[in-house]
Design brief:
Radius of gyration: 15 Å
Protein name: Esterase
Number of domains: 1
Organism: Kribbella caucasensis
Helix content: 40-55%
Largest sheet: none
């Protein structure tokens, strides 16, 4: 992607830049950095479950 190097040197730096941009536009976002996950999607599942759990209304 042309110009991506301007947003950070690493994937995490670029994601943090995107996070800051979203927040600067008033978006309420969640950014969880999962140490050691790298490209293993299964290692992020606990963070995903916590996030999804917070969206579920169980007040029935």
């Amino acid at each position: 992607m042309d110009g991506v190097e301007k947003t950070g040197n690493t994937r995490i730096e670029r994601l943090r830049t995107l996070e800051a941009n979203f927040r600067s536009h008033g978006l309420d976002i969640t950014f969880d950095l999962v140490d050691g996950a790298a490209h293993s999607g299964s290692l992020i599942m606990p963070a995903v479950e916590r996030w999804l759990g917070g969206l579920i209304d169980t007040s029935d």
